[in-house]
User: What shape does this take?
Amino acid sequence: MALILQNVALCNNTYKMTVSMPTSSDLGVSGQFYMIKVSPEHSCDPLLSRPISIFDTDESNHTVTFLYMVVGRGTELMSRMKQGDELTLTGPLGHGYPHFDTDVTLIGGGVGAAPLYLFAKEHKALYPQRKILMHIGFRNENEVLLTDDFAALCNGVKLNVGGYVTDDVDFESSSLFYTCGTMPMMAAAAKHASAHKKTLYVSLDTHMACGVGACLVCTCKTQDGTKKRACKDGPVFEASQVYDAEKGCFYE
Ligand SMILES: Cc1cc2nc3c(=O)[nH]c(=O)nc-3n(C[C@H](O)[C@H](O)[C@H](O)COP(=O)(O)OP(=O)(O)OC[C@H]3O[C@@H](n4cnc5c(N)ncnc54)[C@H](O)[C@@H]3O)c2cc1C
Ligand code: FES
Assistant: This one.
């Protein structure tokens, strides 16, 4: 159980929720996620919890913050939760983004950029001498958010509104790239990274039911033909493991 400290609309159907976690719990790292029970107390409708990435953590206050967009019934129910309500969640789950001692370029699509914020915070703390470049794209002006948050952490932030965020990225500028957003956006990033022989980490956005490796709803194929569970083995994977550069799509 977690206590909701804040659940506020930021813009155009996007909300920020901060919850207070039990003091003994591990809060998690960038790229990990929580399964959030969105049905009201004593109700099982909807039955399944929803996966939401960690946007930020605060070790001193023992809080976790999520950024989410209302797209259906579950996230709509989440948006109606109030400060002081109790929330049932499971996590942190999955494997997050790995850090290496090098300059990095981050590519985020809309609210999908959320886990890259915590990644940038972690990377800056681990390797303060390294450069972090952020590319962030939104469909329209009404959806723009996070640019100031990223500007406070990164050496440069490039905003794209209405176009393809990957078109702005110089894939020769770094050796290491990280992305999170819609699957088509991440596929475009994987295509460019592959063409430039650069390493890219993606966070697969699959449907999930259990979030803990038991139901196989989130199964994806990989380069060597083996199947992986996005919730347990991911959701973060090196793109070359899950993206078929010859066919130009994620392995199906
Ligand atoms: C590891 C992981 C982390 C995520 N982190 C975030 C986050 O930080 N913030 C955020 O806003 N969203 C995040 N998502 C997506 C979020 O889980 C879905 O938007 C949410 O489950 C939708 O629930 P719903 O009941 O509101 O919509 P539903 O009524 O279940 O679905 C509404 C529409 O969205 C589609 N949809 C549902 N789930 C997904 C999905 N995972 N990928 C693509 N389309 C989907 C459905 O097909 C349908 O068209 C994450 C997903 C994963 C797998
Ligand atoms: S969501 Fe059940 S195995 Fe991944």
